[in-house]
Design goal:
Arc Repressor Mutant, subunit A, about 40% helix, DNA repair protein RadA, two-stranded antiparallel sheet, WH-like_DNA-bd_sf, alpha/beta, P-loop_NTPase
Length: about 350
């Protein structure tokens, strides 16, 4: 990686130039963006948000260790090996050691290129200089993780609107990410209110999501998938990924296939349980009670009836199968209960 100092001496370098004629712009040979995790984390500023105790810290630590070792990220995506800085600013050395030992005991390996930091000033009080120094010492850096964004953003300037303050706080990180062409990952929280657009779940104003290059939101799914990772951004393709969490190994895995396949299985489990409790229900009633999309529930009930998992009666109502034997036709339901009981006992699932 060419150093920032070297680039500053070449004003026409594509990474530094800011003005062209249209003909010049069309003729420029820009380098391909650098990826920490291909298709998921690109150079620039990335924001990962999720609810407390959902597993964001396990996810970010696992990504950092995988990249530092050149192992597949999320047990599924090949990455290029390189130095990673992980600022675990809500942790202590003892807690980090316990997590890393848990990961290694489950089959992981030490990551010589992973730097772990538990204390750093806010960006305006010296934090930017700390990160800059590490980046200068590691010219082939692959990723910088800030866990959490709130710990390093610092106080908002007096008299600034919240939108402007959020934008300015994120821009401090983005300036460094862009200057060094290194992916940055900010760990953040979601708001308590529900939202149709997953980007609206991110705590704060639109100034925060507007300043970052990519937004990732980790949500827990109700059933076979432990979570769904929503991704959108300027250089990444918008997508939803089904995710599974192994509490014993402290590891997240990206599951094969679209997230919708797993959510459909989750929906079937919920519908089956509801119909057993309330036989003779119509899809609209089921959707309203479970807070699900009516069209999805209607299609799910029809498909379940076609497979003998539900009995369709005149009038558009649905009943449990005539056999009354649930042992063979509701595997998702028993799996759902197991997931919920396992999650409640996972302990430190940050």
């Amino acid at each position: 990686m060419t150093s920032v100092r070297a680039l500053s001496a070449v004003p026409d370098h594509p990474a530094r130039r800011t003005r062209w004629t249209d003909a010049e712009l069309l003729a420029v040979d820009f380098p391909e963006p650098r990826w920490a995790v291909p298709g998921l984390l690109c150079e620039g500023l990335n924001l990962l948000a999720g609810a407390p105790k959902l597993g964001k810290s396990w996810l970010s630590l696992g990504l950092g260790a995988a990249i530092a070792n050149g192992d597949p990220a999320l047990n599924a995506i090949e990455v290029e090996r390189g130095p990673v800085l992980y600022c675990a600013l809500e942790d202590t050395g003892r807690r980090l050691q316990r997590r890393r030992r848990q990961m290694l005991a489950a089959g992981g390996r030490p990551a010589a290129l992973l730097t772990l930091e538990t204390a750093c000033p806010t960006m305006s009080m010296g934090g930017a200089e700390v990160i800059t120094e590490w980046l200068e010492d590691n010219p082939h850096a692959r990723l910088v993780i800030i866990d959490t964004f709130a710990k390093m953003r610092g106080a908002d300037p007096h008299g600034m609107t919240q939108y402007a303050a959020d934008y300015a706080a994120a821009s401090r990180f983005k300036d460094l990410a862009d200057r060094y062409s290194v992916p940055f990952l900010l760990i953040h929280h979601v708001r308590k209110q529900a939202a149709d657009d997953f980007q609206s779940l991110v705590s704060g104003t639109n100034g925060l999501t507007g300043a970052v290059d990519a937004t990732l939101v980790l949500e827990r799914a109700r059933g076979q998938a432990d979570g769904v990772l929503h991704v959108t951004g300027r250089d990444v393709e918008e997508a939803d990924y089904a995710m599974s969490f192994d509490a014993h190994a402290g590891a997240w895995t990206k599951l094969d296939g679209p997230a919708g396949d797993y959510l459909m299985q989750d929906t079937r489990a919920l519908v089956m349980r509801f119909v057993r409790d309330y036989p003779g229900s119509k899809p609209a009633d089921i959707a309203k009670a479970l807070d699900l999309n009516p069209g999805t529930v209607r299609q799910t009930c029809k498909r379940m009836a076609d497979k003998g998992q539900l009995h369709a009666a005149p009038g558009g109502t649905y009943h449990p199968p005539d056999t009354g034997d649930s042992s063979g036709d509701t595997p998702e339901l028993s799996h759902l209960s197991l997931r919920h009981s396992t999650t409640s006992d996972q302990g430190e699932h940050l």
